[in-house]
Design a protein that fits this description.
Number of domains: 2
Strand order of the largest sheet: 7-6-10-8-9
Shape: elongated
Helix content: 25-40%
Number of strands: 10
Mean pLDDT: 85
Largest sheet: 5 strands, mixed
CATH topology of the largest domain: wza like fold
Length: 192
């Protein structure tokens, strides 16, 4: 019984540190379909195991994380739940009934880029998604030299790139709203 109490105490301390990180972790957990990206920060732990207390780690550029007894695990492109289930399966070799947890604390790898004739070009961290108009707004809007009806979104998928047109005049007039797509991690919005 005292083993369970000490394990529970460690677990509670780990969860308390997670909660101290703020509402970003809680917000991320309410998104079951959120896929992890390189650069995302996660806390991984196993309930009631004093040797596997919660620890924060960053998803590596190759999409991998490393966890004791499991080794390397591909997390990039998988949902939080998929990673948790895979951890449970691998830990069953060593623990009788593991209860792994995976909590996203910062979605820093979920970025898009806005470049060209905008006030603030650069990377935008999405939590969890934004559309083209929102990205342009976050970038401070277009400068006076922008060609707003020639905006494109470059999307890389599986080694190929696609170009998606965005005509600001049409969308701002309430027409052809399907152009205002939800951006995906790695998209580049080009404002000529």
């Amino acid at each position: 019984m005292s083993t369970n109490i000490s394990g529970l105490s460690l677990w509670i301390a780990g969860v308390a540190s997670i909660l101290a990180l703020g509402s970003a972790a809680v917000r991320s957990q309410t998104l079951p379909d959120y896929k992890l990206h390189p650069g995302d920060k996660v806390i991984i732990g196993v309930y009631d195991d004093p040797k596997l207390t919660p620890q924060e780690m960053t998803v590596a550029p190759d999409g991998r994380i490393s966890y004791p007894m499991v080794g390397e695990l591909i997390a990039g492109g998988k949902t939080v739940e998929q990673v948790r289930l895979e951890l449970n399966a691998k830990l069953k070799k060593y623990l009788s009934d593991p209860i792994a947890m995976v909590i996203v604390t910062k979605a820093e790898g979920n970025v898009v880029f806005v470049v060209g004739q905008v006030m603030k070009s650069g990377a935008i961290t999405m939590n969890p998604t934004i559309n083209v108009l929102q990205a342009l707004s976050i970038a401070g809007g277009a400068n006076p030299y922008a060609k707003l009806d020639s905006i494109i979104i470059i999307r890389s998928t599986g080694g190929t790139q696609r170009v998606l047109p965005f005509r600001y005049g049409q969308v701002s007039a309430g027409k052809e709203l399907q152009q205002n797509i939800q951006l995906e991690s790695g998209d580049v919005v080009v404002v000529p």
